[in-house]
Amino acid sequence: MSEMSQMQKPRPAISQADYQRLSEFRYLIRRFLEFSQLQAEDAGLTARQHQALLAIKGFPGGGPVTIGDLAERLRVRHHSAVELVNRLCEAGLIVRDQDEDDHRRVLLRLTGRADDCLAELSAAHLDELSRIEPTLRRLLVRNHE
């Protein structure tokens, strides 16, 4: 036996039902993301713009959001978040404010227009989540056979 094969951990026992649950879960995620993208487009936004607005509005603790925070929440590089913020500012959806305590920090805030748009989108998304919730709950409970 090679040294590499001796060091490998034994493969966990995964049942056909587990594979089916994972497959169904990924399918539901993809369907939800497709739903989300179409809703955003209908509202005149890209999916990424919608995600950014939601990340700012729903930031944990409700505190101020920096471009670095936004980059982390969207899982993008800092310069990509800057470009997105530039487009959102140009569209009149967010405003950059200088942090009064640290003038080097730029804080992001939604405009009234963005708040209204996000409220409509969020209502539709919450309805969709309610619709798929029973299936999600069933998939998230792992029965050990």
List keywords for this structure.
mainly alpha; Arc Repressor Mutant, subunit A; 3-stranded antiparallel sheet; 6 helices; 3 strands; 64% helix
Plain-language structure description:
By secondary structure, this protein is mainly alpha-helical. It is built from 6 helices and 3 strands; from the N terminus they run αααβααββα. It has a single domain, classed as Orthogonal Bundle (Arc Repressor Mutant, subunit A), CATH 1.10.10. The protein has helices at 3-7, 16-42, 47-57, 67-74, 78-90, 112-140, and strands at residues 65-66, 94-98, 106-110. It has a 3-stranded antiparallel beta sheet with strand order 1-3-2. A hairpin with a 7-residue loop joins strand 2 (94-98) and strand 3 (106-110). It is globular. The model has no long low-confidence stretch (mean pLDDT 93).
Helical fraction: 55-70%
What is the SS-derived class? Answer: mainly alpha
Low-confidence stretches: none
- Taken together, the total number of domains comes to 1
- Roughly how many Å apart are the termini? 32 Å
What portion of residues belong to β-strands?
Answer: 5-15%
Task: Report the mean per-residue pLDDT as an integer.
Answer: 93
User: Count the strands?
Assistant: 3
- Side-by-side strand order of the widest sheet: 1-3-2
CATH class categorisation? Mainly Alpha
